[in-house]
Amino acid sequence: MRAVEVHTPGEPPRVVERAEPDGATVALLAAPITPLDLLCASGASYFGVPRTPYVPGVQGVGTLDGQPVWFPTSAGMAPGDGSMAERVAVPAGAAVPLPAGADPTEVAALGLSAVAALMALTWRGELAEGETVLVLGGGGVVGQAAVQLARRYGAARVVAAARSHEGQQRALAAGADAVVELGGEDLEELAGRLGRALDGPADLVLDPLYGVPAAAAARCLRSGGRLVNLGGSAAEHAPIDSSTLRSRSLRLLGYTNNELTLEQRAQAVATVAGHAAAGELAVAHEVVPLAGAPEAWRRQAAGLTSGRLVLVP
User: Fold this and answer.
1) CA 60 to CA 113: how far, in whole Å?
2) What is the DSSP-derived secondary structure letter of residue 112?
3) pLDDT digits (tens, 9 = 90+) for 192-241
4) What is the pLDDT of residue 46?
5) Strands, DSSP E only, in the chain?
């Protein structure tokens, strides 16, 4: 079978021929290339240097005994192979059946990013009917999903912030009422731009960025408002001042998919896939043949993509 293999941490993988894995296997339909895949393969993550060669890919969509399923792997985080191969060994009970009508590449593009958006908004952020939601990083996969899911779960107004014009357009296409350009380090100026777009205080901020954007967003929250952080792609530290927290009794909450139980994750995947099958949830993505994985990997590393890259056999 054909497979993608990482041979040297930090370098693009190769496409090789290798033997099929033993035991129960999933026939691959689609596997996304995610930032986590690149981080794990870099050898610089907190998971340590991966044992090479290995097949990357922390998630995928395929068929198991004729049933379309989503499946996770621990590739790059623990010894073993991942989803970027024509056949993938999956532990018993790990695969999640997909509903009829769910497009494999769409579900793969959404994947754990949409799970994070869903659970950060609802389970962690306690989104309520009629609230105003501010989504930072609105042009990314998490952000696009969050804009749509916030609306689906009752938000009255959704504002998104993104750095690039293309990201802002993706957020608008996802259904944001307004978009704000991120950029610069002037906290006061950014807080002002966000506040004007919100047209009133926000109830909930979804934040995959942290740094100055999170600090500016915190200043736009109402008394008792919530900021849910699920990433630090802008910075590992944020200049959120004590007076902002205390004067408004704000709640700063952390979120990670790793906190979910297997049952919660399976239910969230099924929910995301159900919304996708119903035409209620979609993100920008590009389908790439498995043979094109090395170049697609380079593009992901360089940020030269217009959406999630999804490999198909």
Assistant:
1) 13
2) H
3) 999 999 999 999 999 999 999 999 999 999 999 999 999 999 999 999 99
4) 84
5) 2-5, 14-17, 25-33, 59-64, 67-72, 87-89, 96-97, 132-136, 157-162, 178-181, 202-207, 221-229, 251-254, 285-289, 308-312
For domain 2-97+283-312, give the fold.
Quinone Oxidoreductase; Chain A, domain 1 (3.90.180)
| Cα–Cα distance, 59 to 45 (Å, whole number) | 18
pLDDT tens figures, 36-55? 999 999 998 888 999 999 99
- On the question of a common fold for 2-97+283-312 and 112-257, the answer reads yes
pLDDT at 144 over 90: yes
Residues 6+ apart with CB under 8 A from 48: none
Pick the CATH number of 112-257 from 3.90.1150.10, 3.20.20.150, 3.90.180.10, 2.60.40.730: 3.90.180.10
Beta-carbon contacts of 284 under 8 Å, excluding residues fewer than 6 positions away, are: 144, 170, 173, 306, 307, 308
How remote is the C-alpha of 57 from its chain's centroid? Answer: 14
Rounded CA separation 14/293 (Å): 8
- pTM for this one? 0.95
Contact present, 280 and 289 (Cβ < 8 Å)? no
What pLDDT, on a 0 to 100 scale, did the predictor assign at position 311?
A: 98
Residue 41 and residue 6 in contact, taking contact as beta carbons nearer than 8 Å: yes
| Length of the chain (residues) | 313
Q: At a CB cut-off of 8 Å and minimum separation 6, what does 167 contact?
A: 137, 138, 139, 140, 143
Which of 260, 258, 266 is CA-nearest to residue 70? 266
Gap between the terminal Cα atoms of the chain: 10
